[in-house]
Amino acid sequence: MDYINAFWVGGLICALVQILMEKTKMMPGRIMVLLVCLGAGISFLGLYEPFLEYAGAGASVPLLGFGHVLMKGVKEAVDEAGLLGVFQGGFRAGAVGCCAALVFGYLASRIFNPKMKK
Prior knowledge:
mainly alpha
């Protein structure tokens, strides 16, 4: 049942984002920022953990999950370092994901030899 919940929740998030992209004039970058901020806001309210427990990867893989990871890192860093944690917690929590995206993107570009569109 975990796989089914992850599939339909992740698919619903992606479908809603696709509708938002097609029905509004918002650029994809702004939609991505909106999703990260929405995930951080939901996490701040304490509603993301039960959602994550129910949906699993369907809730953690989209950009909403990245916002949750950043907010979770900020909360932990504030508990450890006080006000300074606001500035360092998101970087510490998001570093692994960003580094992995850069490394795997680079490896994919070396393996598949992309070409510029003309």
